[in-house]
Q: What sequence folds into this?
């Protein structure tokens, strides 16, 4: 599902990722941990084509990021969903509209779309907010909308960047159980987090600890 070899990325003179290599099989669950500025978001941005690969090799869901053409990036994004650290939801649109958008783009028939969106909103306790404008939501609610939008399309790969940052413990655990369900259905998940408690929710998950752009520790042999 993911194959990275010697991936490095610099912003000017600062190396945000240094010589990053790892493999993750389909259906795997990976926690990316490490202090602020370690390079977690940068790695996730490379994986879904938001920033171009500068150095090294990267293959994601069968797409070779060294040679991918700009017009193929939307195809990659059909397979890879992202829960962004800063949400990136459309504040003037309702919760329902935000979550439905990705399915509309895929031309899903309306009755099926409505069923899917409602089921995901129910799972995230957002049903009662379906027709509220996102600008009126709390930070934690907006975060759950961002998660709903990412999971509703049933992606092969789900990237979640600090998805529990604005949530209380109970909501964080509920969200985590949604990711676990998703994983149980065969999706591959990468979750960047500062929340150590999440790690104990899935003891068999892979964990990579990043500091200053480099992997300093992992609980498995990184390149299998
Ligand atoms: N667009 C950018 N331009 C310049 N520097 C950047 C940019 N994005 C990230 N960086 C730098 O790259 C390094 C890694 O940033 P990144 O956002 O990947 O860290 P992070 O591990 O996600 O941190 P956090 O836990 O705070 O979200 C940081 O030093 C950051 O300042
Ligand atoms: Mg980050």
A:
């Amino acid at each position: 599902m993911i194959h990275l070899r010697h991936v490095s990325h610099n912003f000017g003179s600062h190396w945000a990722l240094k010589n990053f290599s790892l493999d993750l099989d389909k259906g795997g669950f990976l926690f990316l941990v490490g202090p602020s500025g370690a390079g977690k978001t940068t790695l996730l941005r490379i994986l879904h084509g938001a920033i171009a690969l500068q150095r090294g090799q990267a293959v994601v869901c069968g797409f070779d990021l060294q040679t991918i053409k700009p017009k193929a990036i939307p195809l990659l994004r059909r397979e890879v969903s992202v829960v962004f650290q800063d949400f990136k939801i459309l504040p003037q649109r309702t919760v329902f509209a935000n979550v439905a958008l990705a399915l509309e783009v895929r031309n899903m028939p309306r009755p099926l779309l409505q069923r899917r969106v409602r089921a995901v909103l129910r799972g995230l306790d957002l049903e009662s907010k379906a027709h509220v404008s996102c600008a009126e939501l709390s930070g934690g609610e907006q975060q759950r909308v961002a998660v709903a939008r990412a999971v509703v399309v049933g992606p092969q790969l789900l990237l979640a960047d600090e998805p529990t940052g604005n949530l209380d413990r109970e909501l964080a655990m509920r969200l985590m159980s949604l990711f676990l369900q998703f994983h149980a259905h065969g999706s591959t998940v990468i979750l960047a987090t500062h929340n150590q408690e999440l790690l104990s929710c899935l003891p068999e998950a892979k964990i990579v600890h990043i500091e200053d752009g480099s992997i300093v520790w992992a609980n498995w042999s990184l390149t299998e």
